[in-house]
Amino acid sequence: MKVVVLFSGGKDSVYATHYAQQQGYDVVCLLSVVSKNKESYMYHTVNIERVPDIAHAMGLKLYELETEGVKEEEVGDLMVMLGALKELEGIEGVVSGALASEYQKTRIERVCYELNLASIAPMWHVSPETYMHLLIDAGFDARIVGVFADGLDNTWIGRKIDEVTLQKLKELHEKFGIHVGFEGGEAETTVVYGPGFREKVSL
User: Cα separations (Å) of 135 from 107, 142, 161, 183, 192?
Assistant: First the structure.
């Protein structure tokens, strides 16, 4: 099946790309949505300008869609672009890195239903700790590039997600209730290297 991956360069979309390829999907391209609204409900905005470098490092074709980021209207923008990619690239499915956000997943599924495309979210409702172990064990170098929750300060910026970091996150989960996989927006990440990368991306 030919698929496009909704891609931000963060750990979830990069791992979803890797998983799709491992499962035999033909990842024909990536789609990055660049929102002018930094508070977008749908799209990752931190470090989004590095996505072309990450796509290049992965050797994958990238399409970029700019949106004003108006709530709900930004979903319509996605539908238009995916419709165009269905015609242009022959995509049959859309892969997303959704972990637990009902808001994002239901809207992606609605768009896919309207366009008769399969919606594929390989990590949906996988336990956060299990998911982070999968990411680490696969060999991805994911770095924290934004922090937005109690317990996470500027010393976390640039930190690699590894077993030591994961243990600290579990402790912060117990203390502050943060989502270990950052699905509550507690932090944002950028992946600089991993399986399938031809080169490392500098931060």
Answer: 25, 9, 9, 15, 13
